[in-house]
Amino acid sequence: MTAEPAPAGDRRAFLSEMPAGPGERRLVAAALAISVLAFCALAPFAQIKLARLPAFIPADEAALALTGLITAVLLFGHATHLRSRPLLVLGAGYLFNALIAVSHALSFPGLFAEGGLLGAGPQTTAWLYMFWHGGFALFVLAYAVQRRVDARPIAPGYAGYATLAAILGASLVVWALTVLATRGHDLLPAIMSDNGYTSAMIGVIGAVWTLIVVALAVLWRDRRRSVLDQWLLVVLCAWLFDVALSAVLDAGRFDLGFYAGRLYGLLATSFVLGVLLVETARLYGHLDAALTAAEARNHELQSSREALAHAQRFEAMGQLTGGVAHEFNNLLTIVMGNLEFILRSAKTEPKLERWARAALNAVERGQRLTGHLLTFGRRQITRPEIVNPNHLIADFEVLLQKAVGERVPIVTRFSYLADPVRLDPAQFKTALLNLVANARDAMPDGGTITIETTNVELTADDTRRDPQVKPGPHVLIAVSDVGTGMTREVIDQAFEPFFTTKDVGSSGLGLSQVYGFMRGAEGHVAIDSAPGRGTTVKLYLPRSIDDAKSPQSDFPPLRSAQHRETVLVVEDDAEVLGIVTEGLKELGYATVAASNAVDALGVLRSDAPIDLLFSDVVMPGGMTGIELAAEARRLRPGVKILLTSGYTALPGALPDDLPLLGKPYRRDELASKLRTAISA
């Protein structure tokens, strides 16, 4: 059975309320046609006498009573849920049908007693039959009128009481009619004579037929017929044929018309039950689908919660490691500066010089470690460019091969249609170096490392584990090995800082740097691995809509500070400020020191000669080095800018026109950056 879909959000979307669709109307028309054809075929033979089968009556009416009772229960359930008055009336009609069928069977002569039970007389069963068919037509008529004139729902909280009242009302009507047909049968005109009908039966049957036809007409005229209304038309037609065959066209009890009419009555009672049972099955199907969908949504919600918790944990770790690395870089800057002063001292002893150089090497190792931490925490200042990943990897391939050694060949498989991407080339090369180093270590007996590029399209399912990654076109860079592989537990922890499965001495920051780099590049990193079948680390980078830039090979000429250029040094750490100004003086620069942006602006607004602003990026006081640089250019259009930082907490990348020197730095790096900035 089919029906038109109910409007979204309609809580009354039951088949008993939904408008009938074309398929439903065709099915109803077919049922009506079959009923009419069967009636036309049986009518001429209605008076043919058949064998007397007393068991037919209790079997037929027991089935009819049971069918009516089940239908009533279902209708009452719908009425209570929907708070529908019409359904309540119709449910009472089917309960009336079931109860009066019992009275009719008990009072039928010769069935349970010679004259029938309940004190039945010779007219009792005939009148109960008429009350039965006329009464049910009245209930259907009341249902149809109620639908047309008053569709107000039952008041909230009263549906149960209304249902109980309907049950009691239907029972009371059946009791009253049964008493009238048994105890008061002498008050009623005779409509049976022996086994035949009297002339008074014509008027009674006419009244019953009229009620059925009026109910049919009211239902038919309602253009908003529901699925239930459509099938009630079939029910009333069958009810009409029941009366015609068993009370008009037949000659008496137990002829063809009598048996056929009773079967029509049973079918009439069963049509609506069939519709409601189909609806119940569909509702269970919808419920099962809803439960399945709810389980899927709960699973997705749990996955989203886990992904969110994972992202929040990494974000918190990133903030912690980034902050620690920033402060550690300031300390390394002080240590590195003092060590260089010691090394440049003319009185440095050979043993002291050896110790100082060892300490300086340790500082450089610490610098690399903090660089990994800053990348993981996305606190590293980036210089993103639009690049072709194939070119970037190809240019770096020789160094990668030297890093892993000749025993582990690197094979590249480039898609020549690979789209351009936006990333920091230096951080990408570091990430790639970390990946090939891990791949080499995973193959103690040797093997091949494969680097592949290709274009892919990420869907919502692909990015569900990482809510920050948007679906769409990406470039996949995959680094694969044929090594020992990883367990699920190792994969889940692989990107966490300091986690490692290698021997003591490994920092455990390699994959953390890769993770931080990919997050900063708005990409997604995934690991595909299992014990014994190698590992593939997949880097998904968003496709750039801009064209890749060609690498720049021309650099501005360098020159020394022979003209005593003046550098305004802005640094909130007093010890770092002292080291920097001392180093600049050794390089031949004049210096002006400021501990914050406010003091620096005071200097810039004065008449003091300033050739270059050398400022930390992150400072207290609400103004960053980037903002200070913009204000300096406004106050002094010709001033040169050089920034420095251990990290930046600012969103986005550093402007392309602002050069940067990362902390910690050696004096030679500072000298080179200064000469480049001044010469620009």
Walk me through this protein's architecture:
- 55% of the residues lie in helices and 11% in strands.
- It is built from 17 helices and 14 strands.
- A five-stranded mixed β-sheet has the order 4-6-7-9-8. A five-stranded parallel β-sheet has the order 11-10-12-13-14, sandwiched between helices.
- Strand 1 and strand 2 (196-197) form a beta hairpin.
- With 680 residues, the protein is α/β, with parallel strands linked by helices.
- The protein has helices spanning 22-42, 56-82, 85-107, 124-149, 159-182, 200-221, 227-247, 256-344, 350-376, 389-404, 425-441, 488-493, 510-520, 574-586, 597-605, 625-635, 667-679; strands at residues 192-193, 196-197, 385-387, 410-413, 421-423, 449-458, 472-481, 524-529, 535-542, 566-570, 590-594, 612-616, 640-645, 660-662.
- The protein is rod-shaped and about 145 Å long.
- The longest helix has 89 residues, at 256-344.
